[in-house]
Amino acid sequence: MRDSYTVEPIGHVLCSRSEAEDDDWDNETSEIILDLTRIDEDATAGLKDFSHIEVIYLFDKVRDEKIVSGARHPRGNKDWPSVGILAQRGKNRPNRLGATICELQQVEGKRLVLKGLDAIDGTPVLDVKPVMSGFLPRSEITEPQWAIEIMSGYWN
Amino acid sequence: MRDSYTVEPIGHVLCSRSEAEDDDWDNETSEIILDLTRIDEDATAGLKDFSHIEVIYLFDKVRDEKIVSGARHPRGNKDWPSVGILAQRGKNRPNRLGATICELQQVEGKRLVLKGLDAIDGTPVLDVKPVMSGFLPRSEITEPQWAIEIMSGYWN
To answer: Which fold is adopted by the domain B11-150?
Structure first.
């Protein structure tokens, strides 16, 4: 038997975008509303001393039959190479986990105000972590050309 | 009723460290062995074009009663302020998720060889994502002094 684990949202995303779109995420100001039945209000004590947080969330709208376990063209675009699902960041992935670093603009009780969270309204949030410089890459990053092209209009 | 989701490991960590320790993680060379009943071998196609990956994993050794849902001193060290569990990256957290950026040294079939993965032997891996420059912070990072101090011997 395969091992499995249960995760429960600690909160949900509140924002104006209700459908998955590929680009222009910086136009959104998003909030995370923490669920105080799952986490205490002082779970965010000291968080505002960090400029950025990483949000781990779940692409809950992705249906099982859409999950890719092999390779595909990112966004279905044949100008880019067919690469494995672990070599891209698309949502149709095993376990449907998203992880995004965003700017923390405000912390107000159970409410976090963010810029640059690429998750739609209602998305279940599984974790929030502070971005520490010590956890960013410690050596130079290289990436393929398609990874630069795919991000060209992503934030804006 | 609260919503919950099931996640299943796509692989496991193989490394020489079998107990959680706080420091010196760069001394470890770790591997992820993918589970080919959960994911296809071509899931890693093209991954080697990235120098770094982010690994999402589960601190499966943390028992429920150890999970912190409020605030505490990081590592129990009173020299550092008591801050919320969402303002630190310790393992005793709701949903027990870890997320670490590490260097990808080799991809060989179902085997990924890594440097800088701070997870012990046997840790369930839930996701692997390529590190794209477009997903790193796009504005200057600030963090409190304790977050710099706590990382001083972490990698080495």
So the answer is: Elongation Factor Tu (Ef-tu); domain 3 (2.40.30)
